[in-house]
Task: structure prediction
Amino acid sequence: MSLSPEDISANFDKFRSLCEKLGDRSETALAMVDKLGEQLALCPASSRKDYHNCMPGGLVDHSLRVLTNSMKLVKSFGWNVPKDSLIISCLFHDLGKVGLANDDGTVSDYYIPQESDWHREKLGELYKYNKEMQYMSTPQRSVHMCQQFGLKLKTDEYLSILLNDGFVLDENKPYCLKTNPLVFVVMTADYISTMQEKFGGVWTP
Result:
């Protein structure tokens, strides 16, 4: 799977337009998205072909899919989840994959194109991780990025981003069954979206 330049541009425009629906947080969210610009628009969602959306534009495409599936889950279960919280949590749940916001206002890329032909051809590793960056998990970098750009997260939004990799992780297990529907919606929609990107198919409840 790959995205054309037109697809990447259209996805980024849609991503940006959704940030206009965040009320008094729209201006800050838009400023962050515009500052990240091409880094966000072209960022892959993973580093290897056998993962999901390992391609330019993969992250934005994935994040939009997570939002679509989240909206379907909320509607199916009749849960009252604020729309602005759903948009923020889904669009920015993997924002840390873009990189790390530095104190000087620059953003270091997390994914770097793999230069080794062997890694690309034998392992399908199209990108490698930037080892020069301060180590953080992707969820930690995601909330850090929001904080660096001044986007205030509500408690539920913070947890939905921090825990989106699921309760299978040891560090997330203490939160199991102790959070609100938003966390479960984003987490579940993330898994569903990843499966769609790996194996195809569209979920219609």
